[in-house]
Amino acid sequence: MAGIESKSPFSPYRADGKLYGFVCVVTGATQPVGAAIVTELAAHGAACVYAEDSTLTLVDDVLNAWGRLDVWVCSSGLLGPPSITNTTPTDLQKCFEANTYAPFFALKYAPPAMAKLCEKRNYPNAEVKDVPYGSIVVVGSVAASYGGCWGPAYTMSSHAALGVVRSGTTVLKGTGVRINCISPGQIDVGVDLKNFDMRGMTSQLPPANLQSKESQHANISLERAGLPTEVARVAGFLASGFSSYITGSNLVVDGGASTMCPVTVPV
After folding, report:
1. pLDDT tens, 108-139?
2. Is the dihedral of CA 220, 223, 226, 230 positive or negative?
3. Which of 32, 128, 136, 205 has its CA 20 to 30 A from that of 11?
4. Phi and psi (nearest 5°) for 63?
5. DSSP 37-70
């Protein structure tokens, strides 16, 4: 790009994996996993992290303010009802909107913004962007690969979200933009059963104590539920140059549960 100075290596290929100059968007940032991802990207040195619940309206705002977009994390999932009997058509629609529409719209609208090149600007951690680059990360669930994790709406929409990621490898061919999925298993989001909406219409993940400590010990290789920060570290990896040759992948973060006990996948 004419007029852009490019004396230093483009930041995705930094040996330390830092995100200097990167402008990131994290949707679902009010949920525990999304909030942890915001903190993780900031710790990696991102110039700016937008913590949002919307998915589309801020693309123009990001480009106008920063001149670039580098990372888009979809973490705005919805659990939905635990049984088909309790699932209405409206519930199913909401689950698909949260779990599938957001990744689809990210795949459709984020890559053109990620293709924008940018000279070095005057803000902290600013860097030149002299080649097209981007990383889209979809936070899904092990329900994308297995049945019986919760309810049908969750399983169906999680499968579809992984389908967005897999189809994205063809859509994004040659653009420099990567797309990957994180599939968490049982994650302790700090909610107990007493305060949990069992219809699942306000939560991304079920409470970890839905399964007893004894069951966790028996069915999870690491013998415990995971933490939002442990999901966030995988998102930081997928956002950085450490994963520069990874796209179309599904990284399972479940403590080995789905490998050790594929019939009884705890979520």
Report:
1. 999 999 999 988 888 887 888 888 999 999 99
2. negative
3. 32
4. -65, -40
5. HHHHHHHTTBSEEEEES-SSTTHHHHHHHHS---
The tokens describing 83, both together, are 């049984």
> What confidence tens digit (pLDDT) does each residue in 86-104 have?
999 999 999 999 999 999 9
48-52: strand order across its sheet: 48-52, 23-27, 71-74, 134-139, 177-184, 250-253
- How wide is the angle at C-alpha 165 spanned by C-alphas 199 and 236, nearest 5°? 85
Q: For residues 115 and 175, is the Cβ–Cβ distance under 8 A? A: yes
Query: Which residues does 158 contact at the CB level (< 8 Å), separation at least 6?
Result: 99, 140, 141, 143, 144, 149, 183
Note the residue count of the chain.
Answer: 267
Closest by alpha carbon to 21, among 153, 145, 159, 117? 117
What CA–CA distance (Å, rounded) separates 6 from 176? 18
Q: Which two tokens stand for residue 235?
A: 């998102």
What pTM does this model have?
0.89
CB-CB contact of 73 with 33 (8 Å) = no
